[in-house]
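Deliverable D2.4 — example input (structure tokens):
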């Protein structure tokens, strides 16, 4: 509605807003309570009520109030808007509004826009075989599940990136505002470029209570609340006070004025930024936010059984809980439902009355039908060739494997720079102040870090249009990336391996979203969420025990097999081939662990591509035995997964080749960890016959593993030869020490692996000279530690690893 709209037309528009709000509230209550008869054609009976009353009323009326007012602004201004629902249990309100929009019936044709469809709508909510209570993937227009609070605002900021002209309205509950992830999300405005990005409109709903306690922000004096948000870079627009007993139309008028002011301010900021030639010419207006104070459970029962309910925590879930057994509760519920005057809102066939039509935006402007909330328009990622970045290993004698050294993430960073250049508006890199530390700094040759705040001359690599976003919050970085991916763009998050645990729960929620979305026919696929974890457990040269934890892998592998993938590339070329693969995937969570320090390049690029395609394989060139033995089963399998475990395994095999030359050793490298699991449990699982061909059915397997040893056993316990698999990995021993001493502390070093072979190959330990050899290797372990503790570095013989025959 334009600023010069007549009083009569504004009154008419706000009357439609009020009717829409009442209709949404009526449908919300109906979903929580009713089995059928959604329009109350007959008086309520106990049989009309669901046997299990589930859902949350307290937050729902404010969500619908905001939805109705946003619809008015969209119709009036034509500004595409996405609604991000932060309050976790607002599912019935969001479903109700999507049905009023008409979107729900379009996507679920059986839930028609009439009384028959309404019966299905109310019955399915939180009902066996129906829909969940949250604004889940089944809810049109949703990109934020809300099952766990704290992620709404960061999702909103991610959705706004590279979406010029889009407003992302994010409703934040005052309970959610107390979470750590949400607390960091206020800073998302430091990264949005108003020239090329959309805008986020935070709407903080202060309804005063959580499940059983008051909320902190609702009790802060209003002056302090304003100062708080000024400090975060927002101009708060207050819609507070006077809700109890006030004429609803006056409340609507205040909210409409606030919405108009917010959208006008957003448009001025956009216009100023796009017209200005320099930063100094831009407007200094701060982006708006709205603080909306409403009673919890607004318009619901004021009192139940003599206790206050509305505007207390008692309104949080189901205000009237004994409706089937308590006639007074049943009567109160009917009174509550009829207070919305449904006869004014639905016609004789149960369709929304025509008076609501002017409040319904057209097509994709409906928030429940926004293409941005269903994968956007995904543009395929342009991936440059990786060949120019390959590490070439070649000695003078023509041998290849392991002769060149390279830091895997540094090599990948140079290709990532080219990826950024090839996708200037559809790819972003996110990291918690660790992009350069993880050796990806080559990207700064192409772009800077996104930054909208003041700068000083000593700053480096900051740019208003930067494609890298860094803030020291893993939550914020992952949340922005999720919002970016869910709206159809591409990206990568990099983190120290130990600290990615901070987002364990965020990973869980995103994996669950993808799993649920895969079952919703109208949900389009979205680009995969990919983690690159470096500065990993085995190489913490600047840090110590606190930075040593590979357990994120354990969290990941327990999710649905169709969703998760784990890759442990052993060298730079394999990392290149791995990333080239994962960037092409959809609807996945890919976890890639790679080191940043120099390691041998074991494979040529062609070999690396083949190895990534296979995910697992025997390295015949590294195995031992005579040519005549090649077709025979080995005496022992030395397996490895991860760059440092591979290095130590290769060194162990070199020791065995030199000192026990008759021993037949097969080297097996695993780069796709899920190959270990049987194919009944994971689509990448290696068939049993192929697994047995690699690992044998009865020979000892010494497995050098990047993570906790139990994980390999978890993945392989159904395999034929599982009883013979002996795993070495991280056993919670670490400190700031040398690379070899770190593996020594955890019994993953080459001597320990070689000693395991002596011990586990039947009869080998008893052969002549083996006891002396074992003593020699034990002494070598000790000597290496003594040298490191005296000189501060590993001895030279540790890094010299002959691997060629």
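Example output (designed residues):
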């Amino acid at each position: 509605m334009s600023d010069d709209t007549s009083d009569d037309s504004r009154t008419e528009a706000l009357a439609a807003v009020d009717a829409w709000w009442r209709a949404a509230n009526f449908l919300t209550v109906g979903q929580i309570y009713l089995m059928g008869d959604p329009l109350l054609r007959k008086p309520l009976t106990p049989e009309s009520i669901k046997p299990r009353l589930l859902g949350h009323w307290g937050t729902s009326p404010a969500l619908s109030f905001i939805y109705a007012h946003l619809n008015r602004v969209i119709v009036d201004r034509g500004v595409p808007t996405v609604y991000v629902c932060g309050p976790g249990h607002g599912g019935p309100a969001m479903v109700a509004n999507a049905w009023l929009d008409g979107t729900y019936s379009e996507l679920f044709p059986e839930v028609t826009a009439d009384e028959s469809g309404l019966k299905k709508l109310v019955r399915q909510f939180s009902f066996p075989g129906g829909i969940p209570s949250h604004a889940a993937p089944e809810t049109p227009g949703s990109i934020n599940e809300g099952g766990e609070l704290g992620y709404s605002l960061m999702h909103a900021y991610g959705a706004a990136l590279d979406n010029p002209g889009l407003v992302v309205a994010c409703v934040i509950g005052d309970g959610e505002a107390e979470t750590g992830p949400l607390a960091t999300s206020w800073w998302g405005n430091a990264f949005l470029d108003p020239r090329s990005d959309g805008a986020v409109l935070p709407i903080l709903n202060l309804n005063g209570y959580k499940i059983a306690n008051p909320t902190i922000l609702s009790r802060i004096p209003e002056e302090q609340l304003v100062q708080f948000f000024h400090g975060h870079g927002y101009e708060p627009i207050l819609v507070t006070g006077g809700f109890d007993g006030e004429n609803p139309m006056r409340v609507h008028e205040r909210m409409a004025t606030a919405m108009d002011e917010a959208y006008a301010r957003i448009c001025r900021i956009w216009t100023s930024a796009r017209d200005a030639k320099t930063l100094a010419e831009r407007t200094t207006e701060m982006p708006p936010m709205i603080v909306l104070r409403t009673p919890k459970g607004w318009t619901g029962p004021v009192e139940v059984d003599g206790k206050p309910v509305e505007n207390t925590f008692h309104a949080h879930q189901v205000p009237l809980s004994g409706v089937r057994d308590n006639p007074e509760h049943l009567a109160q519920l009917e009174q509550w439902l009829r207070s919305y005057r449904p006869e004014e809102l639905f016609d004789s066939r149960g369709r929304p009355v025509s008076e609501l039509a002017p409040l319904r935006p057209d097509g994709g402007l409906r928030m429940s039908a926004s293409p941005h909330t269903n994968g956007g328009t995904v543009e395929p990622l342009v991936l440059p060739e990786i060949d120019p970045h390959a590490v070439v290993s070649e000695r003078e004698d023509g041998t290849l494997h392991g002769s060149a050294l390279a830091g895997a993430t540094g090599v990948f960073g140079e290709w990532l720079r080219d990826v950024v250049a090839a996708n200037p508006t559809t790819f972003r890199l996110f990291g918690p102040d660790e992009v350069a530390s993880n050796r990806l700094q080559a990207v700064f040759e192409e772009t800077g870090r996104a930054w909208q705040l003041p700068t000083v001359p000593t700053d480096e690599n900051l740019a208003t249009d930067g494609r890298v976003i860094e803030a020291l919050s893993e939550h914020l970085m992952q949340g922005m990336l999720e919002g970016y991916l869910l709206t159809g763009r591409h990206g990568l998050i990099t983190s120290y391996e130990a600290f990615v645990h901070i987002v364990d729960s965020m990973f869980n929620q995103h994996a669950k979203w993808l799993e649920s979305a895969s079952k919703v026919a109208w949900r389009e696929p979205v680009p995969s969420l990919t983690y690159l974890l470096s500065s990993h457990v085995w190489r913490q040269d600047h840090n110590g025990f606190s930075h040593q934890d590979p357990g994120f892998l354990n969290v990941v592998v327990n999710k649905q097999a169709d969703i998760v993938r784990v890759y442990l590339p052993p060298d730079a070329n394999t990392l290149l081939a791995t990333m080239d693969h994962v960037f092409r995937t959809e609807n996945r969570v890919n976890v890639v662990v790679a080191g940043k320090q120099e390691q041998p390049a074991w494979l040529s690029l062609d070999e690396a591509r083949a190895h990534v395609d296979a995910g697992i394989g025997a390295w015949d060139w590294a195995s031992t035995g005579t040519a005549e033995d090649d077709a025979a089963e080995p005496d022992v399998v030395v397996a490895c997964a991860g760059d440092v475990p591979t290095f130590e395994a290769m060194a162990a095999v070199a020791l065995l080749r030199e000192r026990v030359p008759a021993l037949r050793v097969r080297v097996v490298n695993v780069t796709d960890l899920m190959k270990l699991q049987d194919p009944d449990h994971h689509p990448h699982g290696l068939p049993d016959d192929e697994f047995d061909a690699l690992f044998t059915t009865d020979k000892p397997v010494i497995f050098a593993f990047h993570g906790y040893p139990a994980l390999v056993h978890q993945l392989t316990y159904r395999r034929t030869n599982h009883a013979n698999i002996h795993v070495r990995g991280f056993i919670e021993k670490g400190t700031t020490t040398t690379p070899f001493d770190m593996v020594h502390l955890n019994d993953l070093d080459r001597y320990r692996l070689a000693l395991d072979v002596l011990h586990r190959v039947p009869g080998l330990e008893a052969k002549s000279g083996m006891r002396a050899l074992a003593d020699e290797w034990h002494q070598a372990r000790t000597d290496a530690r003594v040298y490191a503790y005296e000189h501060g570095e590993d001895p030279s013989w540790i890094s010299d690893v002959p691997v060629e025959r």
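Residues 615-799 form a domain with the Rossmann fold fold (CATH 3.40.50.920).
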